[in-house]
Amino acid sequence: MIKSVLVINTQGKPRLTKFYDILAVEKQQELLRSVFGVLCSRADNVSNFVEAESIFGPDSRLVYKHYATLYFVIVFDSSENELAMLDLIQVFVETLDKFFRNVSELDMVFNYSKLHNILDGIIFGGQVMETSSAEIIRAVEEISKLEAASNSISLVPKTVSGWRSR
Amino acid sequence: MDTLFQRGLDDIIKGVRHQQSSTESIFMSRVIEEIRREIKSTDLQTKSTALQKLTYLNSIHFIDMSWASFHAIECISSPAFSHKKIGYLAISQSFSESTPVILLISNQLRKDLKSGNEFEVSLALDCLSRIGTVDLCRDLASEVFILMSSSKVFIRKKAIGVVLRLFEKYPDAVRVCFKKLVESLEGSDSPIVSAVVGVFCELSAKDPRSYLPLAPEFYRILVDSKNNWVLIKVLKIFVKLAPLEPRLAKRLVEPICDHMRKTGAKSLVFECIRTVVTSFTEYESAMKLAAEKIREFLMEDDPNLKYLGLHAISIMAPKHLWAVLENKDVVIQSLSDEDPNIKLESLRLVMAMASESNLMETCRVLVNYALKSDPDFCNEILGSILSTCCQNVYEVIIDFDWYVSLLGEMSRIPNCKKGEEIENQLIDIGMRVKDVRPELVRIARDLLIDPALLGNPFLHRLLSAAAWVCGEYVEFSRNPVELMEALLQPRTSLLPSSIRTVYMQSAFKILIFCIHSYFLQKEDMTSEVSDLASKRECSESSDLATGKALVQSDQDEGFNPRESNQSYEYPFSCRYWGWTEANLDREEVIASRVVEWVHDGFSEELGPVSVTAQDRVPIPDELVLKENLTDLEAICGGVELPAPGSFSLTSPYYGESAVFSVSNLQDEEDSEPSTESTSLLTEHRKRHELYYLPSEKNKIPANDYPPANDPSSSINTNDATEDLVKLADQSLVSKRKPNHAKPRPVVVKLEEGEAAPVVSKKPELKDDLLSGAIHDILLGNEAKAASSQSNPSDKSSSKRKGKAKHVDLLDSKENLAVGEQPNHENPSSRRSKHRGDGKQKSKKSKGKKNGDGRER
Q: What is the similarity comment for this entry (chain A) (predicted)?
């Protein structure tokens, strides 16, 4: 089971946080800080595993990858394979890259909701559901279309009613 | 018109980015105020935008959003998909079991689960999988069950994913959904199988036994599937099942090795290695292959693979040391790797390789390496040396003199924080290994006289051990005076009082030892008793006679050791010139006897006491344990500093002493050492009657005191009854370790009771429910299953399917049980057999009950 997915920039600012267990915001913030504290002290050419039991409790493992200004972190338990989780980070980043065409940190900052759509396409309730970038993107685009459609529907009558009420 | 002027999420993001850190909190509170206003709007567009902003702030800036839970529910009930989506994200991010309005979403979830739009269904499923409570899971189980048969893969796999939450929260859901779940295992590479296998992997981690009957299904997937994700999960399931069913291993080893050889995916290779080295250790060929693959990992440049390789070896190490030895070069080389994970893992392996023959060399190298390492790794090294060396009562150590000096050396490493561990080992070795005591005292002396160590709080515990050792084994000391000075140096004020207590205690022991040896010396030259000597003694004895007990003067912090030591060498003051010769003689005899009693008390050897020894002492019926122990503080204070003149040593003997002969002295030696402490105890009892047991008889304490306030020394005999002492003695005598072939000193060892008692683990109630339900299903407890089902149409269908499934299970189980039959070489034919026609199934189903009964 995956416990959490975090994207943190090298300044320690969160860009995406997802906790699959229910946690209070203070706790989330504390975990994020501890994770960043460990990550920023690690050199670049070392392994991608971090001892996580002191932060997330027993049976937790953490893998991360460092891309440009961002750390991508997955926290999980013994039901997952470490290397597979690293692959999953790869899948996530590749999908982002395809979706945003050369993803940068700014895309991550301004596309909060799309980011969640993509992540939710990959991981469902802590379980890996889809690992094909193409499939994920297809679903996310469908969702975007639906959102746009529902927005335009809701906007028209609203403006009209707005005019009438004047 | 709200919408036109409302700031969207992008505006907020931009706004936050433009703030300085000083103005950020002002900006944030303004934005939240704005959100609070907007979210109350009746216009859903305004409301949902506000909610979206809040959700963003919650997840990125950790702003509380629990107050908005009702508004989130309003948003999911909007007909517009975009509002729904924002609402669901907010709910799964902020709701918990204790959210008061959580039950209100039940109806909306049901509506969305039934929606024709697959993305709406997906939203609802996702929400349920994240926040599903007992009530929600119970209410929506049947909807999820329907979705498990959805024609859309996109929905079906998510419905299967939700089942995990359903089972966890509402175990009765098993009766509805389990058969469907098992059916979904068919096929081998669809996303559905991937989802189901994932669910079973989680379920079997909690309660593997219930899923043992499904082993044939998993086996088929293991053989057929090409999907690495699925294979990894199946391997994880088998690791859980293999210990429960010994026949499994035989069947599994071949396909797993096959995957290991063929696959190019490192993740799968590693999972295969891990499976083999944890579960199939007795299959030599598989182990060899795994070791080969590990070697490949170690040769890679990728630090991840190297780390995992080392990790896999360390799983093998306890039973298959050859795997470590084969890779010795890499392991040792990795010790200086820049990667902390790799360093740690290789340190573990280096210690695993340590044996009697190479331990000294290994430790020497490691200690030198620790000196150069960063503080954290330095302490990791020290910790692993300490834990390796003390394994099985110092099994690997032959030369204890060397080990004790190593402990001393380790204490002096500047970054050392292992004071407590070293403390325990110093005392432990002192008690267990007689032959090492001279060296131990020497090391302890070196530690004590080093004023630098007093400044490091991590080493205080260690110093208390050193002090204790010096006091206890002072007879091996070359220069007790020096020890005395070390124990009473002014800088001891840096120590916490609990450790100073040990210092004082040891100082007293040393003092007694010195006086005692003086008397012995004197006895030797009785003929030439000089005036000076008797006067000297007079000073000591008169102290005693006037009730100023030695103990008391020892506990007085102002006590000056030099004075007493000087009295040992020079003529003392002339205060006592007035005493008559006769007086002197008598006083001297008393003094020498008192000193001897105390000395005898101290020279009684302390041995290790079994941890279960206390349990073997029956608890007296009258014993009432006072619950509130805070009053104990006062008593402990009293122990440390008894009131002056509070006890008298002399009274019982004073009158008789004149007629004591030497033989008399010898006779009473056995009983008397305890008298001194008894009187101490009597006094204590007088003052704190309340905490004593009424019976007077068996309360004579052990004839020695361990450090009074030293919680970690395993010799808390201060209140031990004679029974306890006897018990410990017996176990010591009978369980001495046979002498080693080499001249290894005897190490006192208690066979029983050193290991922690095994605590039987109780399974959780919830898992019980779940496994019970699954057992019912697998055993075909149809009546029960059907009764708990709400939907009649479901009932019949699931019943039918259930039966069919049982046949399959049984059928394939038999295949598995038969063992070596080459059935699986042709999986397709086997599968077609599985899907045989109804007649075949019904025939088989008759034998179902028996079959299942036999299996269990």
A: Belongs to the adaptor complexes small subunit family.
